[in-house]
Design brief:
The protein is an alpha+beta fold and about 100 residues long. It is built from three helices and five strands.
Length: about 100
Amino acid sequence: MRLFVGAQYLSDKDFGESIVRPSSRGLNYLTLTLKIYGGVYAHKEIVEGGKESKDITSLQRIGKTLTIGEDTFEDLDEVMSLYFNIIVLQLFNNTTS
């Protein structure tokens, strides 16, 4: 799913909705697209760790670790609850104050 398709999917969704999709950077990357407001989207790169590059099955699964910048998470649920939900709350608080 390309960048445009992720934004198109979110176009009729509410503020704070998101989609995780494969990244164009390769098999060790994901991109999370977050709808901020109207046609404004944020895209965050997630680096997948713990994949065996010689094992095609391993490359097709979500990595054992997911890293965003300096922060490392164990799974997508943790990424959403400890990283993106906080961003959404901060954005919401900034737009309503």
